[in-house]
Amino acid sequence: MNARLTRSAFVVVLGVVTAVAVGWLGVGAYVAFVRYWPGALEAATAAGAAGSRWSAAVAAAAPASEPLGQAVLDYALSVVNLVIAAVLVLLGGRAWSLRLLALAMVGSAGAFNLQAHAAATAVEAATGVGVGGLHQIVLHGIASAAYILALLIFPSPTASAWWDARPGTRSGRIGLAVVGIGVLIVVGFGTALLRHTASCVLFFGFLVPLTGLVVLPRRITEGETAELRTQARLVFSLLVAAFATVVVLGASTLLLWALGVPGLTLYDPTAHGGAGGEPLALLFWSSRLGAAAIAVAVLVAIRADRLWTAERLFSRGLAA
After folding, report:
1. Out of 33, 39, 85, 89, which could bridge 105 as a Cys pair, Cβ 3.0 to 4.6 Å?
2. Could you tell me if 149 and 103 are in contact, meaning their C-beta atoms sit under 8 angstroms apart?
3. What's the confidence (pLDDT) of residue 52?
4. What is the rounded distance in angstroms from the CA atom of residue 133 to the CA atom of residue 150?
């Protein structure tokens, strides 16, 4: 009964997050279309002058759109996240780590798409209702919490957690709930205080890999079976590579910023008082790619029939 209730609650949360993320992405894409399609902005402006609140809101939001090339890359990565989420749902079976990663992929597809945040400007202008808190909790908060919880219970819900309580036990479930609520609160406040580029780098670029690096070594040495230990070792190797990449790119960003090298600053429509900001382009794109790669690695680790072959291929890829 509890298991059925838990699955039902998960389906509801996944449905809500999917609806919000896809709606967010759709409105943001429409705003970009109005901005860049010849004559569309003029038509929206004229419709707004004629009394259409929605057209007026879209026309007001359009000038703050991302540059076209950046928007295309942004949406390409969001589509990749949604595809990965669909694959995780279809192939994940009863593995809760894959279910949670699917939730994280859907949420992050909308949360860290900078152009999609034009949807907030348009909706608020059209309805007068502030929706800023909606994306902070439903997208940013849930995506980050789901990703971290997925790593905490990987490769098996019966694996011993870092707080010495198995996730499948009552104390383990309480510990996971505390972690999840804590991440929701921290990410919610962090997103409100930081630019979305910075929050993506901080939470998905550093916090997610670091969580796995803390948790998985114990799973590698104390896993119940050789298969579980190999699964943990495979994902751990990718987490090491992802975290090392972010650290190196972070150091490179600081060096290039100090040298005044151009081209590192993203156009961020979510920036307060302007679209400039810190030169986080390298870290932002690598954080989004790394989060998707980690999710794929977890899927391969759990579903691979020839796990040791997969580990060897991953090792060669990481070395390359």
Report:
1. 85
2. no
3. 82
4. 24
